[in-house]
């Protein structure tokens, strides 16, 4: 058997295990008997190969806290727990990061590097061979071109993920063989970004605006344009733009506006259901697809609030505790921050008249959940002393969870809602941020941010200075995109770690006397963040394998 054939068998086998985009392809038997000649000699098999590439993209639901190979730890380590959004279980990798421990063996960084380059390699193989796949009819030629464009988009997606995490990385755009020089040094950030832009542009020129239901999950024109806008936003941000070159902000705004101008996407009416409903959801631009029983994720029972009550089926680990810091960032329904005069905030009735996204994202004392009322006061069903998995902050995760999968029934355990990589609300906020930085608070900036606020029932904002609007946009991202792993990167690209990540995180302590609750805010833990952590360290295992790789400053 040839080396190429063995290599392809391994690639297809891994990709098949990783999952896929839609039900019929999730049901496909392992393709480890198919030769490379067969795969790239039959357009239907080539399409299957591309579908399997999608399944290899690492999503926030799949991060392994214990590192590569430890699949038992999947679903218990979203990056939100290494921000001021949430606290995780003691002793986890992300909890250690909150204490300032970020080493070259950081498991999440190693995993990001491994999976992104795994997918990039598959894309390079596809792109190098796709033009030779037989296609005779106009529909076949169209499909062949589309599959190539999909691979270009996915490659851009992976490189955009790598450079936001590590900065400059090795840029590999050709299929590598054993005879090639595999010790590739890091390219510049700008070279990597140019490749992301080129792949996005090439993909957008070919990809359709939408697909029939049977192909939902495949990359679209909008996905390519939105990814370009996000990548350019990062390029314009302080971490990459110390001189604040306004042309970079304008380029980012223009790219995100191109998504708006497609007139294809809209905000889903129900914020909580955005992350659960798969059909009729025009807000989703690109997502990692899950579907029972073929591919599920373990977030519902690993991260859901652990509640002890006679009429609640147990099973949740309670591994995710939103912070009081985040809760305090939600405005009042009148649009004022809780610290503003005349906001109406009542410290002893703290959840009254708050932004609706608070109760759609976070479980708190008095929240309905699985048919009961959550009790986070001392001795309550979520804070009972016998409950070893009780919340550490007085809050629990609701957003991203479908409560019917929070169950001890192992047959029914495991959610199948999708992980959304890109949605229209982010595009609107990307545009608002970039346009405000480029030209100041013009009408289009207000229009974009107010569309997002309108869905939540929050009043429109207007008549702000550029600095005031910048702060409102940043807080809007904090609320709207909470727990979606944007905060981890936003604070880094803004270079505001000292402001947000180097301060204590707080919890709420609630006592009950009769029918009266007493709320007090207490410090949960101190956090330690260093400016060197704005970029992750290059994984040590990669440095050991490739002496031509240089490490990011600040890491030994």
General description of the model:
Helix 6 packs antiparallel against helix 7 and helix 9 crosses helix 14. The chain starts with a helix and ends in an 11-residue tail after the last helix. The chain has a domain of 127 residues: Alpha Horseshoe (Serine Threonine Protein Phosphatase 5, Tetratricopeptide repeat). The strands form five sheets. A two-stranded antiparallel ribbon has the order 1-3. Strands 2-8 form a two-stranded antiparallel ribbon. Strands 4-7 form a two-stranded antiparallel ribbon. The longest helix has 29 residues. Strand 9 and strand 10 form a beta hairpin. The N terminus is likely disordered. Helix content is 40%, strand content 7%. It has 556 residues and is mainly α.
Tags for this entry?
disordered N terminus; Serine Threonine Protein Phosphatase 5, Tetratricopeptide repeat; 556 residues; two-stranded antiparallel ribbon; 10 strands; 40% helix; mainly alpha; single chain; 19 helices
Summarize, please.
By secondary structure, this protein is mainly alpha-helical.
Mean pLDDT: 91
Distance between the terminal alpha carbons, to the nearest Å?
43 Å
Biggest sheet details:
2 strands, antiparallel
Give the ordered list of helices and strands.
HHHHEHHHHHHEHEHHEEEEEHHHHHEEH
So what's the CATH class of one domain?
Mainly Alpha
The low-confidence parts are 1-32
Q: What is the strand and helix layout of this fold?
A:
Layout: H1 3-18, H2 23-26, H3 36-39, H4 43-55, E1 86-87, H5 93-98, H6 107-129, H7 138-166, H8 189-204, H9 221-236, H10 246-260, E2 284-288, H11 299-303, E3 321-322, H12 324-329, H13 356-361, E4 362-363, E5 368-369, E6 372-373, E7 396-397, E8 419-423, H14 424-439, H15 443-456, H16 466-480, H17 486-494, H18 497-500, E9 505-513, E10 516-525, H19 540-545
Antiparallel strand pairs: 1-3, 2-8, 4-7, 5-6, 9-10
Helix pairs in contact: 1-4, 4-6, 4-7, 6-7, 7-8, 7-9, 8-9, 9-10, 9-14, 10-14, 14-15, 14-16
